[in-house]
Amino acid sequence: MKSARVACALILVGCSALAFAHAKLVKSNPAEGSTLQAAPTKFVLTFGEPAKLTTLTLQKDAEPAKKIGPLPTDASAEISVPAPKLEPGKYVLAWRVVGDDGHVLPGKLTFTVGPTAATTSAPGSISK
Fold first, then answer.
1. Contacts of 118 (CB under 8 A, 6+ apart)
2. Beta strands 66-67 and 25-29: pairing type?
3. Is the CB of residue 44 less than 8 Å from the CB of residue 111?
């Protein structure tokens, strides 16, 4: 009975280690929820382990999502892709990566390009 408990414990530890082995996003540029005064020239996604980017799309406001490419062909923990020219608006950057363990992981982040409300008034004007 004691050996069965030890075996179960080892299996549970092994399964929990696999659950943490996925390529999770740890940092991005632009950052989630950020407001940028100038449009980014590239998108940088940093994962906790090497991953291969298989899909990258960008959606502005309510417009249809557009594929971005070309995508890097090699797996890497930090993936950089040139950004298209962006007009002011709210964007959703969505991706799908395949980790070294073969798991496919989708993700997305939102960011805004454009002036904040405080910078839309002319200097010296009073908002009503």
1. none
2. unpaired
3. no
pTM for the structure as a whole: 0.74
CA of 2: how far to CAs of 12, 13, 15, 71, 89, in Å? 16, 17, 20, 52, 62
Tens digits of residue pLDDT in 15-66: 444 444 578 999 999 999 999 999 999 999 999 999 999 999 999 999 999 9
d(CA 90, CA 105): 24
> Which amino acid, 37?
Q
* Residues contacting 78, CB < 8 A, separation 6+: 44, 45, 46, 47
Residue type, 108: K
Domains of the chain, start order? 22-116 (2.60.40.1220)
Is-contact 93 66, C-beta < 8 A?
no
* 33 three-class SS: coil
CB neighbours of residue 51 within 10 Å: 28
Structure tokens at 63: 């417009």
